[in-house]
Amino acid sequence: MRLVRFGEPGRERPGLVDAQGTLRDLSGHLEDIDPKSIGAGELAQVRSLDATSLSAVQGQPRLGCPVGHIGKIVCIGLNYTDHAAEVGAALPTEPIVFMKSTTSICGPDDDVLLPPGSEQSDWEVELGVVIGRRMRFVAEADALKHVAGYCIVNDVSERFDQIKRGSQWTLGKSHDTFCPVGPWLVTADEVSDPQQLAMWCEVGDHRMQESHTSRMIFGVAHCLAHLSCFMTLEPGDLVATGTPAGVGLGKKPPRFLRDGETMRLGIAGLGVQTQAVKRASRPA
After folding, report:
1. What whole-number distance in Å separates Cα of residue 243 and Cα of residue 83?
2. What is the pLDDT of residues 177-192, one digit of tens each?
């Protein structure tokens, strides 16, 4: 299933995209797509519905993050060999872990707002993994059984804040709008192997990233099992699994996001995001 949440920010309703690409309203069957419904197994009940019996949504409403009220965002850094090489970092011997604030979450096509004074904001296409069952000390062989589904994450990063403030990764990655998610949550049964997905990112007319999840240093199952040894992963939690080469920081010379540009990014089977980049004003 391709699950979505549509509507104005804070008022999103649950829906699904059927085989013909029609957006269908699920609000008569599901209160929301969130940790509560995911943890209760309600998504499995939705799978039994006849999609054509659901009301078609008219027009082209805004899509929000496909999972509401995410409890935490856990990210894996330097998880592609080519990305580590382009930024001059040694290959990690175990997953590098950092967090991203949930207030950075926005819809897949919402504007990305550059913070006041930002000159080094960067793009990062990543495979996102949404947890479906509680994970604590889970073996790698069993890790994927705990996945509800997969989505696209743009791990937007302000590199000065991330690197020049004493390696403050979480600060550089937690600005408002710095975590576009979606457009869809594609349920795990429709992704036969998360390590076999092509991925790409364009800025303006230029394709900056083009890679494949098979190039991860630590695969999805390994990352989830590793994380479950240090923290409990709950239903609805989001894990971003790292970005491949082609980020602005790795360009010679470095090249960062500019006011007025557009980002487009996609992962095979998971849809496409499009974000306008705008300069945020400082609050009064």
Report:
1. 7
2. 999 999 999 999 999 9
Q: What is the edge-to-edge ordering of all strands in the sheet holding 13-17?
A: 23-25, 13-17, 2-6, 185-187, 147-154, 125-131, 238-240, 73-77, 96-100
pLDDT for 284:
60
DSSP 130-198: EE-S-BSS--HHHHGGGEEEEEEEE--EEHHHHHTTTS-HHHHT-STT-EEB-S-EEEGGG-S-TTS-E
CA-wise closest residue to 186 among 267, 112, 265, 263: 267
d(CA 211, CA 266): 11
| 210 residue type, one letter | E
Residue 102, amino acid: T
Encoding tokens for residue 228? 């479950």
Domain spans, the chain: 2-53, 73-279
pLDDT at 84: 86
Hey, what CATH topology would domain 73-279 get? Fumarylacetoacetate hydrolase; domain 2 (3.90.850)
Cβ atoms of 75 and 99 closer than 8 Å: yes
Gap between the Cα atoms of 264 and 203, Å rounded: 7
Q: How confident is the model at residue 281 (pLDDT cuts 50, 70, 90)?
A: confident
Q: Answer yes or no: pTM beyond 0.85.
A: yes
| Residue in 120, 166, 146, 279 with CA at minimum distance from that of residue 220 | 146
| 101, 73 contact by CB (below 8 A) | yes
Q: Which H or E run contains 42?
A: helix 42-47
- The three-state secondary structure class of 223 is helix
In whole angstroms, what is the distance from residue 269 CA to residue 199 CA? 10
Q: What is the β-pairing status of strands 125-131 and 238-240?
A: antiparallel
